[in-house]
Amino acid sequence: MSYAYRLDAATIWTAVTGSTLTLSGLANGSHAIQVQATDAAGNVSGSPASYNWSVTPSAAQIETQFSGPSVTSTYPPNNGLAVGPNNVVMMEGSRIEWTNLAGGSPVLQSVYNFFSPLGAAAASSLNHPRCVYDSVNQRYIMIMDNSASGHTISNIDIAVSKDSNPNDGWYLASLNTSLTINGQLTSADSPMVSVDGTNIYITASQYNVNVSGLAGTECWVIGDTAGAGGGIYNGGTPTVVANQITPSTQSIFKVVAGNNGKIYYASDYSTSGSQVVVTLQTYDAATNTFGPASTISLGNIDQGGAYTAQQLGTSLLLDAGDKRTRNLAYANGFLYGVAEVKPIG
To answer: What count of other Cβ atoms lies within 10 Å of the Cβ of residue 309?
Structure first.
């Protein structure tokens, strides 16, 4: 006796090897199967047996837990997280840690020890860690801003892993961010990083050193392999292939790379009172050009004032920042952003 089956909307019968059929990889939802039998004389069963069932998504489960680095000297914490195929890299305040996804023994060290090959001046006051994973080139990228000597020295330290295993070593570089803007010396603060397999995209708010105020957001595009020595991805000189400064009146921009050859920059700010406006701009990786900025009004949605939030289960008030854009994500043709606001009333 032999058997054959038709699954869901199939019109062709598929032979079954032996007397057992195993189905895998079925999508969530309803399914139907028909099975017919054929005897040794070639007679086919007149009425196939049928069965209907549904596949439901399984509940989310925690596969592996990681202890992670812990720094209690600052709150809210400044942290970064990047996950590759076999490892996870974590940054928390003044510490860096990575481990494999099986929860193996972690490698933990101070950011000052990690970036020390860059020299004391480039790694004396490190803050605001960020990290991402470049899935195209299979590299981890970590950045931190460094401001020393009353912010008269300013740079962003950059680390690029040599491959997808952070234990195989890192290339280190320093980006000078002591910039003169509108005749004033500025220093970088709170950088953001994104990658697309061709470039590293970094933004940072540039604050005046000798007078108060924001000078704008500097946007750097660093080629992965551009410049002397094969570029930053080969341990060579980091080379800026494009850059711009955004107006301070448009607040602080964040950046995220899309999967369509475009890179997206966005900020939000108040024009008057509680009116919140989002500014959007793109960068074309093929032509190395920034496009024009456009604005979208979100309306009267923020009452301003002190932005604090009570930590769950305690009386501690955390500094929630302000209405500026905190993070961006691009997926399925949409750009997503997050910012704190205090709703009217």
So the answer is: 14
